[in-house]
Amino acid sequence: MSDHAMPALYLSHGAPPLVDDDLWVSQLGAWSRELPRPTAILVVSAHWESAPLTIGSTTTGTPLTYDFGGFPRKYYEATYRSPGAPDLARQVAALMPDNEPVAHQESRGLDHGAYVPLSVMYPDADVPVLQISLPTLDPERLMHLGERLRPLREQGVLIVGSGFTTHGLPFLCDPSPAAQAPGWSAEFDAWAGERFAAADVDALIDFRAKAPGMPYAHPTIEHFAPLFVTLGASSDPEQVPSQVIDGFWMGLAKRSIQVA
């Protein structure tokens, strides 16, 4: 990879009320201002699992996917009218092996794992955005997917894996944003931070067996899975990533990283 390639990100995206959290908004905003301006953004979100690999809408103005429940009405009226990215969609399809089919779901707009953080990082919605599905939850297969997408970074595409470093929603006792992190969340987050600092990709891949706090930190694993697309898209998966954001929200770890 050249020195001018875009980085790749794994970010903890938060529920729709993230936009009302002043600290998190300031952290995401500062992060985006430090990044080179992308030509387009490619998002793999925890909230879209579909095999084979599926490409979402490439049309500007496709309605958002409000894939959540129980929130105030204003969150269902949010808009994010980012330009479509049909050229990027064609490139993504071309990068996939001939023996792995690619599907298209042209009616599917961005889900909250994509538009919520992007509405903070790129509030003018002036960068083309494309969302693709998680075709598997297997970390090694997702690493390979990231490797295939890696050349897009040379063209200025910002690859974003959007999940949550811990996501044990069924085990939360206090749903308030400033809630103290449960032990399982704090322990998993500390372990993840240490493994990032040690560039220990093997341990991260085997997180279900090796990480403390499991399975409470991830009773289902789709929110950690996008990390492996990001690591695969890096120029060297065993590099030490920048840990840009840490801390907790509703007791869940919002640790987020950037790789070159």
Automatic annotation (TrEMBL):
<dbReference type="InterPro" id="IPR004183">
    <property type="entry name" value="Xdiol_dOase_suB"/>
</dbReference>
<protein>
    <submittedName>
        <fullName>Dioxygenase</fullName>
    </submittedName>
</protein>
<dbReference type="Pfam" id="PF02900">
    <property type="entry name" value="LigB"/>
</dbReference>
<keyword id="KW-0223">Dioxygenase</keyword>
<keyword id="KW-0479">Metal-binding</keyword>
<keyword id="KW-0862">Zinc</keyword>
<dbReference type="InterPro" id="IPR014436">
    <property type="entry name" value="Extradiol_dOase_DODA"/>
</dbReference>
<feature type="domain" description="Extradiol ring-cleavage dioxygenase class III enzyme subunit B">
    <location>
        <begin position="26"/>
        <end position="238"/>
    </location>
</feature>
<comment type="similarity">
    <text>Belongs to the DODA-type extradiol aromatic ring-opening dioxygenase family.</text>
</comment>
<dbReference type="GO" id="GO:0051213">
    <property type="term" value="F:dioxygenase activity"/>
</dbReference>
<keyword id="KW-0560">Oxidoreductase</keyword>
